[in-house]
Amino acid sequence: MNFHNLSIKRKLTLITMLTSSAALVLSALSFLIYDLVSFRHLLIQDLRTQAEIIGYNSAGAMEFKDVPAATATLTALTAKEDIVAAVLYSVDGKEFAHYSRTNDAFPKVLPPLSQDQGYRFDGGYLQVFHDVTLNGEHLGTLFLQSDMRQWSVRAKRYGGILCVFVLISGTFALFVSSKLQRLISRPILHLEDSMREVSVKKNYEVRATKSYGDEIGRLIDGFNTMLSEIQHRDGALRSANDELKTRTLELEKEILHRRQTQEELLTAKHTAEEASRAKSTFLANMSHELRTPLNAIIGYSEMLDEEARESGCSENVEDLRKIQSAGKHLLSLINDVLDLSKIEAGKMGLHLEDFEVLPLIDEIVTTVQPAAAKNGNEIKLHVSENVGFMRADITKVRQILFNLLSNACKFTDHGTITVDVDQNDRDGYMRFCVSDTGIGISEKQQQNLFFEFSQADASIARKYGGTGLGLAITHRFVQLMRGQISVESEPGKGSIFTVQLPTQVALDNTKLARAVAANEGETSPAGSKIYQDTILVIDDDASVRDLMSRSLTKSGFRVVVASNGEEGLRLAKQENPLVITLDVVMPEFDGWSVLKKLKNDPALTDIPVIIVTIVDNEPMGLDLGAASYLVKPVDRDRLAVLVERYRMAHSASVNRPHSAPSVSGAKKPKRLSELKSIGDLDHADDLVGRR
Amino acid sequence: MLRRLAILLAVFSMTLNWTASAGAQAGEASDSSEYLVKAGFIYNFAKFVEWPSTAFAEPDSPIVIGVLGTDPFGDIINHVVEGKKIGARGFVVRRFKWSKELKDSKDFTNCRILFVSSSEKMHFEEVVEAVKGLPILTVGEAPGFAERGGMIRLMLEDNRVRFEVNVEAAHEGNLNISSRLLTLARIIAPTGPVARKPG
Fold this sequence. Notes:
The structure holds 2 protein chains of 2 kinds. Chain A has helices spanning 8-63, 67-75, 149-180, 182-201, 215-311, 314-344, 357-374, 394-410, 443-447, 458-464, 470-480, 510-521, 542-554, 565-575, 591-600, 618-624, 636-655, 669-675, 684-688; strands spanning 83-90, 95-100, 119-122, 125-134, 137-146, 353-356, 378-383, 389-392, 416-424, 429-435, 484-490, 494-502, 534-538, 558-562, 579-582, 609-613, 628-631. In chain A, the strands form 4 sheets. Chain A has a 5-stranded antiparallel sheet. Chain A has a 5-stranded mixed sheet with strand order 7-9-10-12-11, covered by helices on one side. A 5-stranded parallel sheet of chain A has the order 14-13-15-16-17, with helices on both faces. Chain A is of the alpha/beta class. The two termini of chain A are 105 Å apart. Chain B is α/β, with parallel strands linked by helices. Chain B has 7 helices and 10 strands. The relative contact order of chain B is 0.13.
């Protein structure tokens, strides 16, 4: 058994017992050794005395050579059991007489021995030599040999006694130490019991009883202190735990409550989204429904206006123009609302393309010129020499600048409107600055200037008209292109609007990039087979066909019309027109399908297709290969500009096949102004800004 | 002359016996006859006998050996004790003839050992009477010597020289005979011989 794992009781007992036994054995052994050594010494002395006596008594016999007498003297040693042999040697060393107990061998001749010793040990025997003298005369030597019987007997007996003694005292030590060890072991065992009770039953109220003031007593004190501490902490922990449980319950309740709230919120959100979708759908439907009649109103009033002027019925012209004006105002309102709803729905995308800035400015200035002239304003244009190309959504840039310019014209009476264009190559921004000498805007008004439905003053709406959406839309467009817009103004002196746009507007929509590619593709040279000036109009709406054909015919084109997709395809193959205008929403065979067929037909794929539709899905149209996209009601001027552009591109490719075609319709400002039949209408700006 | 030859012959024959029985004996008697041995014994007796202090005038006074009657030793005893000493005492040998006046003779009473020859057996009682109370060790050869008041009697036994001691007679002469000597001797009571004591 391993000593180290013994119980402390046994260890103490064993230690005490072993220690005392070891001391006992050691002292007993030393006593034994001492005793045996001194006993041996005594034996030697005894034997020597014996030898002396025998020698003395043998002297006479030696002197008188009386062997029997000497033998008789020696034989007296029979009483001494340890003496096994006795020999008398005469002076010449020869044996004189002997006595032998068991016929043991003894030296026949006196063995040589050292003079001073007189005794020696030889083979387990003690041998003593004694000179036999008489009156100082040396007569011979007596030799005695002892087997040390008493010594070995004594040694054995003492050994036995020692064993018994050690056994008895060991037992006694065991008894005493097993009694005494309790002094130490009992408090420790008690401590252990207490500890077990604490650790097994988790009963921290247990306390160990202190028996003595020794180290164990202090240990018990420490243990009790620790227990009190643990008990205290346990209590604290328990109360904290209880509190935690209460809190957790409260929290769970709270979470439940929140979850319910969340579900309610989710439901509310779904409802709101549903409502929003319904609103969007409603707006889309409304715009479609509103635009369709407007299309007819504006178109026919224009036609009537022209016809009235041609036929000289000047009294009707003014009324017709009022109809036109009101129709266009209504259209612009609808468009603004639609734009804004698209922006807010995040559906307003960017269609980036590279374009030259100067022609664009020229075009806008030309377009706005009538509105400026109406209030007697003069437009000054300052374009820096370093202004070149920029990459942006040209439509939106156009609309931004148009809005700013038309606003300036609107709020300035007989003043000067200045347009500054500047390109900063260092930070990569194009700066457009429109300043006027008009009524100006107060500081308070400036704060809300770029928010929806807020004009500088409610009275302004009455005086100048407008929806209050123009600047808001402008602001949103600038933000879309990551630019900035700011205003400086002093009431009565004028306003300065500054727009900064990146010269390279970032694009993160691959769809838009493809749209641009498609836009560029529209300018590719057309085949030589195209009949000049023939335009195919595909639309199921007879009024649209009528308006389009009249308008285009006026612009000097030959117009072929088709009332459905199949007819359109047939005519396209037959006529090989310069441009095809295509409606989307048609019965049976819609515009998308017609467009796909056109683009899949190698003979027809090069003919530019202009989508003219109520459906506002320009990206899809461009994706399918349309060259341009116009939303009804169609702005005749815009249509005229587009068609003119394709005709010029075509003629350029015919005349100069390797030169790049001109992109912007603004290259022909005179032609544009000729085509433009809308005069000094308040909101002509909005119309021009749209395709 | 004839007698001398006879003695010599006898001595020679005894020497053979002696030699045979005690050939290992060392000492002066190694080359002697019966009387050589006996002379040696007499010398040895001096070692085991203690005389009273008054017996000697001086600490180195010699021990006087007297031979009374026919001398069986001749010069042998002179040779044996010549130059010998016990303690500081040497030896002197004197020879006496028995007469009525001898007992008053100073020389005679100064003897410390008196060998009474067998030739004087007729006068044993007178001799014993004469030395009674004196510290004189009387040694004789005749049978019954010890029993009749002599102190030590030498004798031949199994061709070995042995001796008898009358302890009482010795005590009467204030002589102390060593027990060591007595262990070798046959102790004689005045009434008759007793068993030899074991050593």
